[in-house]
Each structure stands twice: as structure tokens, then as C-alpha cells.
Design a protein that fits this description.
single chain, 810 residues, alpha+beta, seven-stranded mixed sheet, 29 strands, 47% helix
Length: 810
């Protein structure tokens, strides 16, 4: 433990413990004594929620718990501890962000209900609920609102929530799974028994059944139906109550009315002669609906676990190198600049850089590529990847909380939480549909009651059951969840789900050249010098190499292979002009190296002869000394292997290369790929203006880029894609990140976007068509309640099954 507790003091708050061992709590396998029920409740909640490590890392005793504090509130209050929040709360500027596991989410309406309720709370900036994963992303102002108050607000509308942790989230799923199985099992067993009794009466299988025997059967049916209604069906009533508490409607309201009304009516008529009871219909309705919810629950989990289980690739412990030996520590204890030893066969525990050794790493869990990658000194490595051979030492660059795996999951959750327009329309439509169902049911009852039909009540129940819009609410979220899971498995990360919708509307695809279409690994093809003396040539080669070694631009790497006889020069006052070049001083002279437009713009026009200008055609990089041109270099880049096939597949779109490179180089690449539109020698602001002009002309633009100078155009494009070797700034601005450098992944994204849109349309069309078609039969009295229940459940199952087809190959 990191602090010393006074002898005889409370282990939680450190104050004198006058109660002895009256309030024990087992922490990390050791029993400790608390001073009061409050401290015991808080400590127990820390242990129960898997947060025992708080006691390992705290530097001060906690505040004393309120001895009279309710255990539930104690569980919430503990999450306000800064030491606890360090593990799962992220700082977003002055605000804070957290991913919560939310128990009790049963359908899309639950997500809408949570978002609506929390949005009313002062201090909450943003709420996004991922129904499929049963998670919520909340951003709040910690100066106005505490995390415990956020959790308490969720509890007031009936949802238990805890900070998301992979293990606890999986445990939550397993608990819900067991609960579903118990309820499905109970309702299925009772349905068989009640149906057997009902069939006997329907077909008089036992001969001439007298009134007393019929009443006896009805009473047995009532007894068997009661646990189904009160226990198995409780999931629907709780959901309906949550909606009513939030002053809104959801799909479970008509379901609840149908179940309870049928049960109560049967309860009060069970003793009457020739009583009409539909206990078998109630049991079947609950049974079928629970099956559809259970299957939906399993399919959502199957789709989301691909992403969630990425955290399970991270080992719990790591080998910390102390300088003389290794010491096993918790991976989450590692700090930036710690040294870690990773042996062959072990998993990289956190993100870092190799400082010693060489190894082959399996990065398939990040990129989807199973070919091992060679890593050596100064190369970055990422937590969760596997060291296949060779021992390496790495220096930690990011703590476990900020590791790439965690960042990917956060981006994934944000993407699933952002709703496309079609999803918002479906959510809104389903709420209006519920109101319409309730209205039509009331009018149906009024009509048949006015006609004197003795079955008016049961006809109304059938209307309520048959038209419940559960399938409509599942149409969009189930498809999006499955699509995102499939893309994630292919090494493609979406930062917002509505990008899938916008991809289907794209008219133009604009490519950056260097690093996107080409490898970005330049070689110097030829060079030119104003002074052809060998000493002068060697001097300016050395100067160019000295300056370019200060840059991280892909072009600069080409100068590293320049052979020079002169030692490298000391570079002073270096300035980077983004998208243009570098300025510096070497000795007393001012040097500029960069694009022809940039360098020639600083040189008087009369300083170059016509012959020199002709000689410089196609040069990529120029070097000037005191605004006098002294050298020029021609660089060439190689196309990526799969680019030709990808460009052919994208032929239906208008394609453009938008680059800062020379017109000659851009034209060379465009001709190789048969791309008609080229815009060369563009500064970042000119690229931005070009994209905006396309959009002003009514075009929808997909932009692919990788460099820092591409970040502005990636941010402004309708949909933007950062390729695997992109800079962090480009990835931050992009909507889609290809974790590998395979440009063919773009085809997977576009294909999945089209498939997802089709699936959503199919789901909505099916859900609406079913409800519209079945409504006349229900109103006309042709459907019994159990028939309506079966049809509604099958409708929901069809929607979920149709969505899961997205997870298979097209």
C-alpha cells in the first residue's frame, strides 16, 4: 500500500477505529477493519466494482464515509475520488468525458430516453448512447456537476451505470444473459403447460368437459401464468415505467398495456361461466417477445465484442526494467519514459518506442494485416501487439489509459454514438408510431364496443400487440453496430457512424499524392548545381542534407542517402513553413530549401536566365543561398502496389489528385493511374479553397490524405479518410482511419456503406410494411393475441438477422 495507516486506525479514512473488527472489508485478499458502516459501504463498493487498485495507488486517506449513508449512494460517491477517476475519466479541455456501462437497456427507445433525460441536467455537455454495446458516452463540466451526480441521474430513471471496464462490462453482459435465460426458460415452460390446458378446452380432447373442470383448468392456467407476468414480463414494465417517468413514450408501453390488461381481465373473469381468458396468449406473447429480445441481445453482443475484446489483448502485468533487473508490475502502473522488457512470445503491454533490440511483431489486432512487421530501435510499438521473436526494450510513450487500443475503442464508441440522419428519422418515427398505435387501439375499442361486439377488448389487445414497433426501433442501430464491427475486424476505424451514410452520397474522390497514392519514399533521381565545381557540388549537397535532416517530411528522407565528402553543417534558426519548405542559417548565410514556387518567389525574376529555367523544369526541391539559387533536385516516388486496381474500381466517381508537388510529378502519377483531373503545387490554404469550391458547386467530396498539411482539407471534406501511415494530426481530422496502409481498404468502406444503407432501408421497409399490413387484420378481429405476439416477435428477429448479415462477406 502506498500510505501508512496509524495503528488502530480505519483502513479507509485513517481515523481512529473504536469499533474493532465490527466493519471488516476484504481488500486484495486481506481483511481490513473500518471505523463505521459508511467507510465499510464505500470500501465494499470499491471492491465490488473491481477498483481495489485505488488502495494501492492512493497517496492520502479517503474522507470518512457517512455512517448513515445509503449503500447505493455510497457506491456512486466513491467515483468522485480523483484517484479512481484517473483510470477511466478523460480530460476534454476544461470538461471531462467517460464511457459508462449501462444496465437495463432493452431497445433503441432506452437510448433515446437516457439521452433526453441527461440532456436536461445542468452541466452535461453531451450524451451519446450506444444501444448495441449498452454503453453511454457523457461529457460534463466537473465544476458544475460531479460524476456521482451523473450516475445518480441515470439511476433516477431506472438505469444502473458504472464506468466502463472490459471485465466488468463482460460480467454485466453475462448477468443480463442469465436473467434473460431464466425468464425465457420460465415463460417457455409455463407456456407449454398453459397451452396444453387451453388446447384441451379448444378441441375438447377430454370429451365433454363440464363447467367445473373448465373453471379448474382456468385457475391452474392463472396460477401458471402469474409468475410469467410478474417475473418474466417485468423487463417490459420497467422499460415502460422509465419512459413514463421521463414523460415520453416507448415501444414497451403498448406491450405493457396489452399484457397487464389481458391478465387483469382474465383474473376477474376466471370464475364466471363461459369465461373468456387468454392466459395462453399472455404466456406465448411474453415468451415470443423475450426470445426476440434475447436473440437481439446476443447478436448485439456478438457485433460489439470484436471491438470490446481488443482490450483483452493487453496483458495485466509488464516487466519493468530497473537498470539491473526486471520487476513484474501492473501494466496500468507504467509511466511515460519507463523502460519495459518484452521477450519473444509476449504481448507488448503499452505504447512506446524500441530503445534496444530488434523483433518481428504481429500487429494484426490493430491493422488486420497478419504479415509480421520488423521493428528496430526508434520504431514505435503499440500495446496489444505480439512480439513473435527477439527480445526488445521499449521506452513507454503513453500510459495504458492513453494507449492506441484505448483510443481506438473511444473513437469507436464515439462513432457508434453519433447517429446518422436515417437513424434519427427512425427513432422519431418509432415514437410517433407508438402514439399512433395507442390512438388506433383506443378508437378500435370504442368502435367495437359501440357495435356491441363482446370481443372488443380482445381485438384491442391484438392491435396493441401486433403493431408494437420494436422492429422499427431495431432497424438502424442493429445495422450500424454490425457494420462497424465488420470494418473494425478489417483494420478500419470509423470515428463517426454517419460517415457511412455520407459515403453513399459522394460524387468526387480527391487524393493527396505523396504517401496516399505513392509510398512517400523518395529517391533523388538527378540534381543540378549553379556551380559545377566538385568542391561546390559537395558543399551544397552537404548543406541540403544538413537542413533536410531537421525535417520529418517524407521528401526529407531522400536526402539522408546523399553521399558527401564534407562534414554536416550546424543549422541555426530553423523555421518550418508548412507545405512550402525550410528556412535556416548556416554560419552567416541564409538558406531556403523547398518547393519551386516557394524558392523562386524569393528570387528576383532576372536572376535566372531562360536556359536555367528550362533546365529546372520538373525539379521538386530547390536550394537557395541568400536568395540566390544554388541547387535543384529531382525526386521520384513509387506507386503503392494496389493503387492501380483501386483507382479502376473507383471509376464511377470523379477523381482528382490534389497535391503540393510539382505539376510534372503530379501529371506523371495521374497518367500512370488514368486520373484526368490534377491540381498541383498547392499550398494547404489553396487545397482548402479547392475543396470548398467543389462543395459550393454541389459536389460531395471524399478526401484521402496522410500529412500534416492535409489536416485542414480532411476536416472540411464531407467524408475524409486518413491512410495507415498518416500523421496524428491527419488522423485527428479524418472521419475514417485505415489502420493499415492498404488502399484497397477504401473499397471495403465504400462497399460496407452501400450495404449498410441497403440493410437499413430493408429493415425499415420490412418493419413498416409488417405493421401496416397486419393492422387491418388486427382491427378486423382476425388475429388472436397469441397470433399477434408471434408475428411481432418474428418481425423483430427478421430485422436483427438481416443486420447480422453485414458481418459476413458480401
Amino acid at each position: 500500500m502506498s500510505i501508512n495507516i496509524p495503528e488502530g486506525g480505519c483502513f479507509h479514512c485513517g481515523l481512529p477505529n473504536l469499533e474493532g473488527n465490527k466493519y471488516p472489508v476484504t481488500i486484495l485478499g486481506v481483511s481490513h477493519s473500518m471505523c463505521c458502516p459508511g467507510c465499510q459501504a464505500v470500501a465494499s463498493s470499491i471492491v465490488d466494482n473491481g477498483l481495489e487498485s485505488y488502495y494501492e495507488f492512493r497517496t492520502e486517506p479517503a474522507a470518512r464515509g457517512d455512517a448513515a449513508l445509503d449503500n447505493t449512494l455510497a457506491k456512486l460517491a466513491v467515483y468522485d475520488e480523483p484517484e479512481l477517476q484517473e483510470e477511466f475519466v478523460f480530460d476534454i479541455g476544461t470538461d471531462k468525458e467517460i464511457q459508462l456501462t449501462v444496465e437495463g437497456i432493452t431497445c433503441a427507445a432506452c437510448g433515446w430516453l437516457i439521452e433526453k433525460q441527461l440532456a436536461k441536467t445542468k452541466g452535461i455537455k453531451q450524451v451519446s448512447v450506444n444501444v448495441g454495446a449498452r454503453r453511454a458516452m457523457v461529457i460534463w463540466d466537473n465544476n458544475v456537476l460531479k460524476l456521482s451526480q451523473v450516475l445518480r441521474q441515470l439511476k433516477t430513471i431506472g438505469y444502473e451505470s458504472l464506468p466502463f471496464q472490459a471485465d466488468s462490462h463482460e460480467a454485466s453482459y453475462q448477468r443480463e444473459q442469465k436473467s434473460f435465460l431464466k425468464k425465457v426458460g420460465l415463460s417457455g415452460l409455463m407456456t407449454m403447460q398453459v397451452m396444453m390446458l387451453a388446447m384441451g378446452q379448444y378441441f375438447d380432447l377430454f370429451g365433454n368437459i363440464d363447467a367445473e373442470t373448465t373453471k379448474y383448468f382456468n385457475w391452474i392456467s392463472l396460477v401458471l401464468t402469474t409468475p410469467v407476468v410478474l417475473y418474466a414480463g417485468s423487463v417490459f414494465y420497467l422499460s415502460a415505467m422509465k419512459a413514463i417517468m421521463a414523460r415520453t413514450v416507448n415501444m414497451d408501453i403498448p406491450v405493457t398495456i396489452a399484457i397487464l390488461a389481458t391478465y387483469i381481465a382474465g383474473f376477474f373473469t376466471v370464475n364466471k361461466p363461459n369465461a373468456e381468458v387468454y392466459f395462453e396468449s399472455i404466456c406465448m406473447f411474453i415468451f415470443f417477445l423475450l426470445i426476440s429480445r434475447f436473440l437481439e441481445h446476443r447478436s448485439r453482443h456478438k457485433a460489439t465484442q470484436i471491438s470490446s475484446n481488443m482490450l483483452k489483448h493487453i496483458p495485466v502485468t509488464a516487466n519493468l526494467w530497473t537498470g539491473k533487473e526486471t520487476r513484474s508490475v501492473l501494466a496500468k502502473q507504467l509511466k511515460v519514459d519507463d523502460l519495459v522488457l518484452v521477450k519473444a512470445g509476449e504481448i507488448i503491454p503499452v505504447d512506446g518506442f524500441i530503445v534496444e533490440g530488434k523483433a518481428l511483431l504481429d500487429e494484426s489486432m490493430l491493422t488486420g494485416e497478419f504479415e509480421p512487421v520488423t521493428k528496430q530501435v526508434n520504431d514505435p510499438v503499440f500495446g496489444g501487439t505480439i512480439n513473435q521473436n527477439g527480445a526488445i526494450k521499449l521506452k513507454v510513450s503513453k500510459t495504458l489509459k492513453h494507449a492506441m487500443v484505448n483510443q481506438i475503442l473511444r473513437l469507436q464508441e464515439t462513432a457508434l454514438s453519433s447517429k446518422p440522419k436515417v437513424a434519427l428519422i427512425a427513432d422519431k418515427l418509432s415514437r410517433y408510431f407508438v402514439v399512433a398505435v395507442l390512438t388506433i387501439s383506443a378508437l378500435t375499442y370504442a368502435f367495437w364496443a359501440y357495435q356491441g361486439n363482446e370481443h372488443a377488448f380482445w381485438i384491442t389487445i391484438s392491435v396493441l400487440v401486433a403493431t408494437c414497433p420494436c422492429a422499427l426501433g431495431l432497424a438502424t442501430p442493429s445495422a450500424l453496430t454490425c457494420a462497424m464491427a465488420r470494418l473494425n475486424k478489417q483494420g478500419i476505424l470509423l470515428k463517426r457512424a454517419d460517415a457511412l451514410e455520407q459515403l453513399t452520397e459522394v460524387t468526387d474522390i480527391v487524393f493527396d499524392k505523396t504517401g496516399t497514392l505513392t509510398h512517400g519514399e523518395f529517391t533523388i533521381d538527378k540534381s543540378w548545381f549553379a556551380d559545377n565545381e566538385s568542391a561546390s557540388i559537395d558543399k551544397y549537397r552537404s548543406i541540403a542534407k544538413s537542413i533536410e535532416l531537421q525535417s520529418e517530411h517524407p521528401i526529407a528522407k531522400a536526402f539522408g542517402s546523399l553521399e558527401t565528402q564534407t562534414d554536416l553543417f550546424a543549422v541555426d534558426d530553423l523555421q518550418v513553413v508548412i507545405g512550402k519548405g525550410l528556412n535556416c542559417k548556416i554560419g552567416k548565410n541564409q538558406y531556403r530549401i523547398g518547393s519551386p514556387n516557394y524558392i523562386l518567389g524569393k528570387i528576383p525574376a532576372e536572376a535566372l536566365s531562360e536556359q536555367q529555367r528550362n533546365e529546372l523544369q520538373g525539379a521538386n526541391v530547390l536550394l537557395s543561398e541568400n536568395d540566390t539559387l544554388v541547387s535543384a533536385f529531382w525526386l521520384r516516388d513509387k506507386l503503392k502496389e494496389d493503387v492501380v486496381d483501386v483507382i479502376k474500381a473507383l471509376a464511377p466517381y470523379e477523381q482528382t489528385i490534389l497535391s503540393g508537388d510539382t505539376l510534372q510529378n503530379v501529371t506523371h502519377v495521374a497518367n500512370s493511374l488514368n486520373i484526368k483531373n490534377t491540381v498541383a503545387e498547392q499550398a494547404p490554404e489553396q487545397k482548402l479553397m479547392y475543396i470548398k469550391q467543389l462543395q459550393a458547386n454541389g459536389r460531395s467530396v471524399l478526401m484521402l490524405g496522410d500529412g500534416i498539411n492535409d489536416a485542414p482539407v480532411l476536416a472540411v471534406s464531407d467524408v475524409s479518410v486518413a491512410v495507415g501511415n498518416a500523421s496524428d494530426l491527419a488522423k485527428n481530422a479524418a472521419d475514417v482511419i485505415l489502420l493499415n496502409q492498404d488502399l484497397a481498404s477504401l473499397l471495403h468502406v465504400i462497399n460496407m456503406a452501400k450495404r449498410t444503407k441497403r440493410k437499413i432501408k430493408q429493415n425499415i421497409a420490412w418493419a413498416l410494411s409488417y405493421n401496416i399490413l397486419v393492422l387491418p387484420f388486427a382491427i378486423g378481429g382476425f388475429l388472436t393475441p397469441w397470433m399477434a405476439a408471434l408475428g411481432m416477435s418474428i418481425s423483430s428477429i427478421i430485422v436483427v438477422y438481416n443486420s447480422t448479415r453485414l458481418m459476413r462477406n458480401s
